[in-house]
Amino acid sequence: MCAMIDSQSAEKISRMKKLRRTLSESFGRIALKKEESSFDEICVTKMSTRNCQGVDSVVKALDTIPEDKKVRVQRTQSSFDPFEKPSSQVKRVHSENNACITARAGAAGKDSPKLRRHSSPSSPTSPKFGKADSYEKLEKLGEGSYATVYKGKSKVNGKLVALKVIRLQEEEGTPFTAIREASLLKGLKHANIVLLHDIIHTKETLTLVFEYVHTDLCQYMDKHPGGLHPENVKLLLFQLLRGLSYIHQRYILHRDLKPQNLLISDSGELKLADFGLARAKSVPSHTYSNEVVTLWYRPPDVLLGSTEYSTCLDMWGVGCIFVEMIQGVAAFPGMKDIQDQLERIFLVLGTPNEDTWPGVHSLPHFKPERFTHYSPKNLRQAWNKLSSVTHAEDLASKLLQCFPKNRLSAQAALSHEYFSDLPPRLWELTDMSSIFTVPNVRLQPESGESMRVFGKTNSHGKGVPNSKH
């Protein structure tokens, strides 16, 4: 029995040595170059017949080696020696992404030169994407509990950028959520979603590089108190719904809609920012101090402890922002805590019960005896300016529904009568096309403004992805 095991082990070792020699002869002497704290992946495609003269086997990427013959390779320790002297000359091989690996075999007994990544001969030290030194920090824009935002400039193309620097805990390493959400944002390409240009990962930080946007909706409304121009409200809301519809179709929730997270470019484009970038934050049972403001746009189901999130979570925020743009004041400006926030909501929409909101009594924080009983009102009674804009009150009432399943979806809201006077071409635009590419679609000047509504950076330099989530 032992002899059989020894025989099988010897045979396995023999096969491993043979494979080791084959790999060594094919790859040559590889030097694994360490850049900062991460490892660069090197992919090798199949050699063409012309370039493989004198080589018996075709070189493949390691991942294509059959499982029964695959040798486990680790970055810090390999099960075979990649620096073994080659017995045959290895020619230059180009991969599909134009990176190349160079190996020149010397005479027997001499060390082979290290492999190196190919760079452009005309600018071997030129700035590259993915490198921290490719961006110049100009000024600090804001700081949160785990990230700092800077205004910056790209050395690659000279464009302004927003650098969101996420500090990594030494004992925790890179947060999984940060990696997941950064990867997710890399795939979102829409005119109404802030563009993620680059991701830089070092041992101490994870930096997300965004397009720089001059201001946000909160600052713009502060600049124009009393409510925005009705036509501008319509175009801004259309863009907000357009961006939300795009991410909702991809099963992505924003989870923190508020005017501070809606960026506005100098051309008037509204861009969703700060969704899925921060660590997941549970809904606190008590909220005071500087986090009170975030309660203003939080739906009643979440305030009452519901964890059954869906796209309707975002649609409540849309309704609050819609009312605020028209009326000029926050729809539900709670000043104390969750209890106060809910009281303000129920004062307008009515205190819920099982008839108006099936399942409300099962929510963790719903205690009927704690809330005053209110009957629902017409929204114009709370926000009089809704009555002066055609179909505005109806749309707002369909968004501000306490029962989550009754809220209008983003796609359905885009088809509401409120938008019926907009050009039909707006519904035919491709994802990356701005609404302002459609003739006669333009922002109107706000009171006391010229036709150029946007375009100046505010004195605080804000209007970039928020450092908090």
Question: Low-confidence spans: pLDDT under 50, at least 5 residues?
Answer: 26-122, 277-293, 451-469
**Helix count?**
10
Number of domains: 3
Reading side by side through the largest sheet, how are the strands ordered?
5-6-7-9-8
What summary fits the major beta sheet? 5 strands, antiparallel
Question: Can you tell me the CATH architecture of the largest domain?
Answer: Orthogonal Bundle
The number of strands is 12
Strand proportion, as a percent range, falls in 5-15%
The N- and C-terminal alpha carbons lie at a distance of 63 Å
Could you describe the 3D structure shown?
The chain is an alpha+beta fold. The protein has 3 domains: 27-118, no CATH class; 132-211, Phosphorylase Kinase, domain 1; 216-437, Transferase(Phosphotransferase) domain 1 (Transferase(Phosphotransferase), domain 1, Orthogonal Bundle). The protein has helices spanning 2-27, 176-186, 217-223, 230-248, 300-303, 312-327, 338-349, 379-382, 392-399, 410-414, and strands at 34-35, 38-39, 93-94, 100-101, 135-143, 147-154, 160-167, 196-201, 205-211, 215-216, 262-264, 270-272. The protein has a 5-stranded antiparallel sheet, with helices on one face. The protein has a 3-stranded antiparallel sheet with strand order 10-11-12. A hairpin with a 3-residue loop joins strand 8 (196-201) and strand 9. Helix 4 packs antiparallel against helix 6 (312-327). The longest helix has 26 residues, at 2-27. The termini are far apart. The model is unreliable at 26-122, 277-293 and 451-469 (pLDDT under 50).
